[in-house]
Design brief:
Recoverin, domain 1, 327 residues, 14 helices, disordered N terminus, extended, EF-hand-dom_pair, binds calcium ion, mainly alpha, calcium ion binding, metal-binding
């Protein structure tokens, strides 16, 4: 019975397998299977998706927690930073206030007693002389302001002109005018520029501020021979590299000689002059003039101090300048 049943089943299987409807029989089978598979797959995918969603929700929560943590850490550090910033900005405000005060004092020509004492030590002027020189500074600065205003109202490029760039001190134009008219210095543009730049030994910056103006004037009018020589050296060292080279000498001496139209090489004479002057100044024979060379030479022969062009006031100009101070 069992066998027969088995046989029948086998027959039926065989029949089903061998029958023409085999294709039919097989065909519907895989389809639902595929369907099932698909559904099953879908379900499992869905399950995976759900799990993934759960995970992603969890991870999102995690991430938000982390973000919150980060934010609170950030806020805490921000608070610390803002405390620091508050301190820093208070210091900056105080510094700005001091600068403003200093600027106002400068512009009004007023010197506070501490600065006056400081300047008296740094310069060779008396208190009264310093007062008088501050008054001149104030006048020159107001000239600069006036010039700046005139320039900005008459010039079409007014927007480019920064008025405050010219009002904070003595600018080139006023300085040049002063050297010409007050100190009898008639010199080339290149030297004038170098005198302006070398004036302020402390390098406070340009335009010239009150302190730079006074210290520069002190060297200019009352400087020791060594101070004056060092000033001239700074002027002649055109590129401020610490040496006066042959090229710089050539530039400085170029216009000393009157050129003869019949000269084949008009620079020949200047080159010869450069060689002669170099021989005189170059004490250590390295082909250029250092500060030591210059100071040594000028100490031995004081008249050579302005060998490369006039950059100091004449004695009579100094005398008449002090007489106009009326102190
Ligand atoms: Ca140089
Ligand atoms: Ca040398």
């Amino acid at each position: 019975m069992g066998k027969a049943a088995a046989g029948n089943q086998a027959d039926m299987k065989g029949g089903a397998g061998g029958g023409g409807g085999g294709g039919k029989g097989r065909s519907p089978t895989p389809t639902p299977n595929r369907g099932n598979g698909a559904v099953g797959g879908g379900a499992s995918n869905a399950a995976t998706a759900t799990t993934a969603t759960g995970r992603s929700v969890r991870s999102t929560l995690q991430a938000s927690k982390t973000i919150l943590k980060t934010v609170s850490v950030f806020l805490a550090s921000g608070k610390r930073n803002s405390n620091n910033q508050a301190k820093a900005s208070a210091a900056a405000r105080e510094k700005r206030r001091q600068l403003r005060q200093r600027k106002m004092d400068e512009l009004s020509g007023k010197i506070n007693p501490k600065l006056l004492e400081n300047l008296r030590k740094k310069t060779r002027f008396s208190k009264d002389e310093l007062d008088a020189l501050c008054r001149i500074y104030r006048k020159l600065v107001s000239n600069c302001q006036y010039a700046a205003k005139t320039l900005s109202s008459s010039s079409s490029s007014a927007a480019i002109v920064k008025p405050h760039a010219t009002v904070e001190g003595i600018d080139r134009i006023v300085f040049r005018e002063l050297l010409h008219s007050t100190f009898d210095i008639v010199t080339e543009e290149i030297l004038m520029e170098r005198i302006f730049c070398s004036w302020d030994k402390a390098h406070e910056g340009l335009p010239l501020r009150l302190e730079g103006w006074l210290i520069g004037l002190s060297t200019f009018l009352r400087g020791t021979p060594a101070e004056r020589a060092a000033f001239c050296f700074r002027v002649y060292d055109l590129n401020t590299d610490g040496f006066i080279t042959k090229d710089e000498m050539f530039t400085l001496l170029r216009n000393c000689l009157i050129k003869q139209p019949q000269d084949e090489d008009p620079d020949e004479g200047v080159k010869d002059l450069v060689e002669i002057v170099l021989k005189k100044f170059d004490l250590d024979k390295d082909g250029k003039v250092s500060l030591e060379d210059f100071m040594g030479t000028v100490a031995a022969e004081p008249l050579l101090i302005e060998a490369f062009g006039q950059c100091l006031p004449t004695d009579s100009a100094v005398v008449s300048f002090f007489s106009t101070l009326q102190v």
